[in-house]
């Protein structure tokens, strides 16, 4: 073995914790007999400053250049001891911890066997540390701009937080206007303040803020690079309107002779082929819908062009691709609502007056297709409504999870229906889940408004036959509290549909290299301790794209993500993990086996020298490639093959 | 004296090692025959490590990773699963009883699963008796597979 290697071994008593079970003096003594060990000590608390000083002194005075600490789990104090080395002028990776507390003293009875195991663990560490070499910690500079994908309340909040600290934000929204689902809602629970009234000022702020580069009617098509320096390609779909010339007068929409169902009104109202989705749209610039515009379909019309005084209509416009450079990315792409058509027994799409929750929002909204009047298809005001919970949620045929917001918006609907019609309200629920600030209180309030709460799942809806001008709806369901089947006759049904991952989540997850959880939403780094970051460094997920949540939680998460992005910007650089893999180019045969295995696409093939290489910034050090390399050319720092083999030898010696 | 086997456990850093630590924190008792070696991910386990352990005199090898779907590196443990299936066939060919090699998912809060895995493999190996090197010396003299 190498003569220059001088190992110091430090055995901790951890008070009585280790010393009562393991003969620590024996461990220290036996370690002294191993090759390359220059000094071996035991001490009552190695992690105390006195204990740390013992190591420091030995490093400085005895020239110790490798350290083994036999103490508690490396998951607890490895960093502390790494610092000791650092402060003594030694590379922190010249350290190995033998876990003789959690995985020895605490799980065994005092006696010979426990001491024997401790000796083996220490011996393994001694052998291993001889093969340690210095590892340099790397950092990358952070480009001080941020990309926010999605312009709903989550994206708006995140963009504003960052822009208010005077850093550039690119806010990319697929639709012609920002606002997202929140702009479609009528009132918000539990305070019943009008959704537009609290959202519109924020939307205006976005359009006024000089640090926000707003790109609506645009989509992110490609992301490359890594934390600190992502290269992003954005497709700006042609609006066929010159944004600089358009004054937003709206005359084109007025005069356009072609109509189609309005997406914003959930298909209940109409919009023109040239349109802004809703009057408060930001930007207030229409788009011409290629799919609906008769000029594009048949080659004739251009009515809008004739009436536009600003001469802003431009049928020659083409899609544009724009390249952006950003340091971090906040994903705020929101949710889709569940389409209840497949549940045929509920009759959605077949029976009139069966609506989804989003449709009901639009019916209630003063800017909606009925001007906020609740009306049946016949035009009559409904006298009763059944609100069905958990449609497509908590149902293993569709989505197993709870969509979290439906109980609360159902209560809101009860209140709105009573307010607007004074009619009867039936709530068909499985469980009432009203966890949130002032939510339970709202539930109590609605209970006091003479709403019928029926615990049970709806079996089916059928058209009732009556003499009236319009059939009513007969609901069959089981009342699980009474234990019998009941029938309810109502005028209107609202299906509270599940919140689902966006239909193109899969596609975006490939572009961004993001993982997804079982339910299809984007996967956060840690469900409890890091619900904002992802396993892709520098990419954050906020709002419903990470899982169903209400507006307050969405806003909080968006602010949290922007704080993280800002922290990176203010620091100016990102420390990267030091444990990464690298390829020995002399040994690499160029077989490419490793290329496809890497979960982070960190390995690329260098065609010129015919070897694989690892991108050090993307690599996270799992060694999946190393384990597969048939030539043994790949090695992960601090977990190299030689180090592990030496540890095996040591433990079993 | 009764036979006390030597068993090596390879644990991934994120779930299994944490689960094993938790066994200690909760003062569960398990057999002292199993010595663990920490890897970043179970998917980083080189098959050679297992053979090396037998070559150096281990009587059994336990491999632990996160539950499927929970690997810190997306899907490292699926690779572990596939490799272990092959590896079990290989060890058999080398004359090592299959029961000496065990794969167990241990999550960070699954201390009891770890304790059980440790005790199970210890008992299994005790029942088999010491591993005597038959073919492995000749066939696995190389440090890699
Ligand atoms: S990190 Fe535990 S198996 Fe991959």
Can you describe what's shown?
The complex is a heterodimer of chains A (653) and B (145). With 653 residues, chain A is α/β, with parallel strands linked by helices. Chain A folds into four domains: 7-135, Rossmann fold (3-Layer(aba) Sandwich), CATH 3.40.50; 145-330, FAD/NAD(P)-binding domain (3-Layer(bba) Sandwich); 336-500, 3-Layer(bba) Sandwich (FAD/NAD(P)-binding domain), CATH 3.50.50; 581-637, 2-Layer Sandwich (Alpha-Beta Plaits). Helices cover 28% and strands 24% of the residues of chain A. In chain A, helix 2 packs across helix 3, helix 5 packs antiparallel against helix 18 and helix 11 (357-364) runs parallel beside helix 12 (406-421). Chain B is α/β, with parallel strands linked by helices and 145 residues long. Chain B has a single domain, classed as Rossmann fold (3-Layer(aba) Sandwich). Chain B contains five helices and four strands, in the order E-H-E-H-E-H-E-H-H. Chain B has helices at 16-25, 47-55, 76-93, 111-128, 136-139; strands at 7-12, 34-39, 60-65, 101-105. A four-stranded parallel β-sheet of chain B has the order 2-1-3-4, with helices on both faces. In chain B, helix 1 packs across helix 4. Chain B is globular and about 35 Å long. Bound molecules: FE2/S2 (inorganic) cluster (FES). FE2/S2 (inorganic) cluster binds at residues 12, 14-15, 41-43, 65-66, 71-73, 76-77 of chain B.
Outline:
The complex is a heterodimer of chains A (653) and B (145). By secondary structure, chain A is α/β, with parallel strands linked by helices. Chain A contains 18 helices and 34 strands.
Instruction: Tell me the fraction of residues in β-strands of chain B, as a range.
Output: 15-25%
* Number of β-strand runs of chain B: 4
- Global mean pLDDT of chain B: 90
Assign an overall shape of chain B: globular
Q: H/E element string of chain B?
A: EHEHEHEHH
Q: Architecture of the largest domain in chain A in CATH?
A: 3-Layer(bba) Sandwich
Identify the strand order in the major beta sheet of chain B: 2-1-3-4
């Amino acid at each position: 073995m190498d003569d220059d290697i001088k190992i110091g071994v430090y055995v901790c008593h951890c008070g009585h914790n280790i010393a009562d079970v393991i003969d620590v003096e024996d461990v220290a003594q036996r370690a002294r007999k191993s090759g390359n060990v220059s000094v071996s000590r035991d001490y009552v608390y190695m992690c105390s400053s006195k204990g740390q000083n013992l190591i420091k002194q030995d490093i400085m005075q005895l020239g110790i250049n490798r350290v083994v600490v036999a103490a508690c789990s490396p998951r607890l104090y490895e960093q502390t001891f790494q610092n000791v080395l650092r402060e003594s002028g030694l590379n922190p990776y010249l350290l190995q911890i033998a876990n003789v507390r959690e995985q020895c003293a605490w799980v065994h009875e005092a006696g010979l066997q426990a001491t024997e195991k401790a000796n083996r663990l220490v011996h393994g560490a001694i052998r291993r540390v001889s093969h340690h070499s210095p590892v340099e910690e790397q950092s990358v500079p952070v480009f001080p701009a941020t990309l926010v994908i999605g312009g709903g309340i989550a994206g708006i909040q995140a963009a504003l937080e960052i822009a208010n600290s005077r850093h550039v934000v690119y806010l990319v929204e697929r639709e012609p206007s920002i606002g997202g689902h929140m702009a479609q809602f009528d009132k918000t629970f539990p305070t019943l303040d009008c959704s537009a009234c609290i959202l519109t000022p924020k939307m205006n702020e976005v359009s006024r803020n000089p640090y926000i580069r707003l790109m609506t009617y645009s989509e992110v098509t490609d992301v490359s690079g890594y934390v600190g320096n992502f290269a992003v390609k954005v497709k700006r779909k042609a609006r066929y309107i010159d944004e600089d010339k358009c004054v937003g007068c709206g005359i084109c929409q007025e005069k356009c002779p072609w109509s189609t169902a309005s997406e914003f009104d959930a298909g209940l109202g109409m919009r023109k082929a040239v349109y802004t989705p809703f009057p408060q749209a930001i930007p207030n610039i229409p788009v011409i819908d290629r799919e609906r515009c008769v000029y594009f379909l048949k080659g004739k019309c251009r009515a809008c062009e004739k009436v536009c005084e600003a001469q802003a209509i431009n049928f020659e416009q083409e899609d544009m691709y724009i390249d952006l450079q950003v340091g971090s990315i906040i994903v705020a792409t929101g949710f889709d609502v569940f389409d209840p058509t497949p549940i045929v027994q509920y009759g959605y799409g077949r029976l009139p007056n069966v609506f989804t929750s989003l449709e009901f929002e639009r019916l209630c909204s003063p800017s909606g297709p009925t001007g906020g009047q609740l009306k049946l298809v016949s035009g009559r005001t409904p006298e009763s409504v059944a609100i069905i919970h958990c449609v497509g949620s908590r149902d293993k045929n569709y989505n197993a999870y709870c969509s979290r917001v439906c109980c609360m918006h159902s209560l809101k609907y009860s209140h709105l229906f009573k307010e607007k019609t004074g009619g009867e309200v039936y709530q068909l629920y499985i469980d009432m889940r009203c966890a949130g600030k002032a939510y339970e209180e709202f539930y109590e309030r609605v209970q006091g408004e003479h709403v019928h709460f029926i615990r049970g799942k709806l079996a089916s809806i059928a058209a009732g036959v009556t003499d009236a001008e319009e059939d009513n709806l007969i609901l069959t369901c089981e009342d699980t509290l009474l234990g019998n089947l009941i029938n309810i006759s109502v005028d209107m049904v609202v299906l509270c549909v599940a919140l689902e991952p966006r239909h193109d989540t899969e596609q975006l997850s490939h572009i961004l290299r993001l993982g997804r959880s079982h339910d299809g939403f984007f996967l956060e780094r840690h469900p409890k301790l890091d619900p904002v970051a992802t396993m892709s460094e520098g990419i954050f997920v906020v709002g419903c794209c990470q899982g169903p949540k209400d507006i307050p939680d969405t806003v909080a998460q968006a602010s949290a993500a922007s704080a993280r992005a800002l922290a990176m910007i203010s620091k100016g650089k990102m420390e990267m993990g030091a444990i990464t893999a690298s390829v020995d180019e002399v040994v690499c045969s160029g077989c490419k086996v490793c290329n496809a295995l890497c979960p982070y696409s960190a390995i690329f093939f260098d065609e010129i020298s015919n070897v694989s290489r690892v991108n050090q910034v993307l690599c996270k050090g799992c060694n999946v490639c190393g384990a597969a390399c048939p030539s043994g050319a790949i090695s992960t720092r601090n977990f190299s093959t030689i180090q592990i083999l030496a540890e095996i030898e040591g433990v079993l010696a | 004296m009764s036979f006390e086997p030597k068993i090596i456990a390879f644990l991934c850093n994120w779930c299994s090692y944490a689960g094993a630590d938790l066994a200690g924190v909760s003062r569960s008792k398990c057999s002292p025959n199993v010595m663990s070696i920490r890897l970043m991910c179970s998917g980083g386990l080189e098959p050679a490590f297992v053979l090396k352990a037998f070559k150096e005199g281990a009587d059994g090898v336990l491999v632990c990773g996160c539950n499927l779907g929970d690997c810190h590196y997306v899907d490292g443990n699926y690779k572990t699963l596939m490799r272990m299936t092959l590896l079990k066939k290989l060890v058999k060919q080398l004359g090592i009883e299959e029961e000496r090699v065990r794969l167990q998912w241990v999550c960070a809060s699954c201390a009891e699963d770890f304790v059980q895995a440790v005790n199970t493999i210890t008992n299994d190996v005790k029942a088999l008796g010491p591993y005597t090197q038959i073919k492995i010396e000749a066939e696995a003299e190389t440090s890699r597979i």
